[in-house]
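Chapter summary example.
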Amino acid sequence: QVQLVESGGGSVQAGESLRLSCAVSGKIYINYDMAWFRQAVGKEREGVAAIYLGGGSRHYLDSVDGRFTISRDAASNTLYLQMNNLKPEDTAVYYCATGPSSGNWHVASGYVYWGQGTQVTVSS
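The structure predicted for these 124 residues follows.
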């Protein structure tokens, strides 16, 4: 059984940075995607960034491309999301997710395992 535990959320001012971490326990496979999603109040859950473990390819939501960076430390089995130049519209609960790659990294239903989420609040 795979378990994911996020950490690193908090409250910051616009323009500041945060780094989210997702500690992974259990077996994951080279054909898995690992991703970050977020869900703001009253909105659908949306894919923010993903990395394909098989080849390391990365994908980003257009609105975060250039500001956010997804990475993974294989040795510690930890997924990261470095978020720079944060904006108030980035405010949401951020979730870590993983599962066999579906070919549609941004689709939440394609992921099997989810963390409990961590709150990110950005004030102007």
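To summarize the output: The chain has a mean pLDDT of 96.
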